Amino acid sequence: MSDLIPPSPSEEAYAVDQDQGDVFTIEDPIALFADWLALAHKKEPNDANAMALATVDETGLPDVRMVLLKDIDACGLTFYTNLESAKGRELAANPKAAIVFHWKSIRRQVRFRGEVELVSDEEADAYFASRARGARIGAWASQQSRPMEGRFALEKAVAAKTAKFGLGEIPRPPHWSGYRVKPVEIEFWVNRPFRLHERLLYARKDLESGWTKEHLYP
Ligand SMILES: Cc1cc2nc3c(=O)[nH]c(=O)nc-3n(C[C@H](O)[C@H](O)[C@H](O)COP(=O)(O)O)c2cc1C
Asked: What is the pLDDT of residues 12-66, one digit of tens each?
């Protein structure tokens, strides 16, 4: 297996392709993140808005999975999911989360930590309505994170919901909505040669306070 892990880069490898220049050109961390995300969209092969979302279960055991960022503004980062999924149950018991983006193509990472709230019904309805019809049916058919007898059980559920809704409107399921992670910490990381990476941590006491920032040792 160890031949699957590349060796540590040589002096020559560090010298090429790693000069990123000044990447902290924007003061506001949300605007800085949006700037990095826009660059990642140009460079990543797909899903630059995919992020790892960490929660903890009721025993304190961490859990993590990928979700798609669907909105970001000064209030926080929004993603959508099944509220009865493992993450939904974990967030109901402990509404706090951590998020990490890693874009390999630009060798950058951004981390967020904060409390989590449900988005409004209006916001969730508007996003649900924008999804492809098949994805809206899927949200009704999938009992996300629950044991499934086999793929056929899912196909049967999709067929049943397709027949039920026919050509009519598909409302948002009551068990499906969005969460907003409201960050009190945002850390930007950029790759530099010889593992002497740059880290910039923005923090605030609460959502009403202003951001402070400091550099961290790599
Ligand atoms: C790139 C990527 C994006 C994903 N986006 C979402 C998403 O936006 N919402 C979601 O519920 N699951 C998404 N998933 C699936 C989740 O990773 C996970 O399998 C599912 O939500 C169940 O997680 P849970 O059992 O921890 O609740 C995505 C998976 C990948 C690989």
From this structure: 877 665 678 899 999 999 999 999 999 999 999 999 999 999 999 999 999 999 9
Q: How remote is the CA of residue 82 from the centroid of ligand 1, in Å?
A: 10
Residue 196, domain member (yes or no): yes
Which residue's C-alpha comes closest to atom 12 of ligand 1?
Answer: 67
Number of domains composing the chain: 1
For ligand 1, the distance from its centroid to the CA atom of residue 67, given in whole angstroms, is 5
CATH code of the domain containing 115: 2.30.110.10
Determine which helix (DSSP H) or strand (DSSP E) holds 80, and give its type and residue range: strand 76-82
| Pocket (CB within 6 angstroms of ligand 1) | 47, 50, 63, 65-68, 79-82, 85-87, 144-145
The domain in which residue 44 lies consists of 14-123+174-216
Strand partners, 100: 52, 111
CA neighbor of 145 nearest in space, from 205, 82, 102, 187: 82
